[in-house]
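[step 3/7] fold_predict: job queued, chain A
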Amino acid sequence: MIRFVGFLVLLTLFMGAVPASAQLSANLGALEGDNARGYLSPLPNALSSTMNSAVFRTGDVPKMKPRLTVGVELMGALFGDKDRTYTPVIPGYANTVAAPTVVGSTESVALPGPGGFVLYHPGGLDIGEFLIAVPQVTVGSVFGTQAVGRWISVDLGDSDLGKLELLGLGAQHSISQYFPRLPVALALGVFYQTLKIGDGLLDTKSTHVDVTGSRKFSFLQPYAAVGFDSFKMSARYDYTAGESDETISVDFDRKTNAHLTIGVLADLPVVKFHAELNAAATTGAAVGLALGF
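[step 4/7] structure written:
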């Protein structure tokens, strides 16, 4: 078990190399609030869908039974063509231009202005998907309730991600224990998470609630879930204008989205493997591997 957990940590460190924090901070430093919001606009949906995936993989929560699994969840969401550009708003400029978002082209875009002045919009990081791997633990179950937690804190240096810290805590409670004649196992789950990237650069908070249903067929256990996600993101960065610097905070409106999941769990005596598809703020997928009982 200890070797397995060590392997999961190494895998998480390897897969955790998502958008470069140092480059992102530099790009944002050339943008004011509204345009920074447009530049970062693809991230809330992708982060919401990704973070709120692969939390609950079964509706079968025993009333009283020891349960402990330790594993890793690999979650991801794709960015579409519409996510790659936005239209900046510049007071006094009659022209418009399609500028890269954070996931768009790395090439900056020039916008001619009054008196021959040219304003350059920073390029993006040329990202096709958001992908993250996170260790996850499930402990239970007592009175039909089990606890779920995930956590990672990794400092990959300024040249890569900078610092990424994710913490998630929640629980799942059996509905089936009150209705023993149900043809499927049902459980209600609630999960809260925070994700921070860089030194205060991005700060997110998310709540996921769902009802998961599953049914066992030998060692295979198909499952589906219906729920919703509530997601809030803010950004804080240094803005440079001429010779002056200031710190700008940009808050995004809270978003609430339906979250639908369909997947299958291979529940072997020691090894647990699952794969799922998610339709939430955006479409995504997740796979997970765990050891336990």
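[step 5/7] annotate
Residues 2-292 form one domain.
The chain has a mean pLDDT of 87.
exit 0
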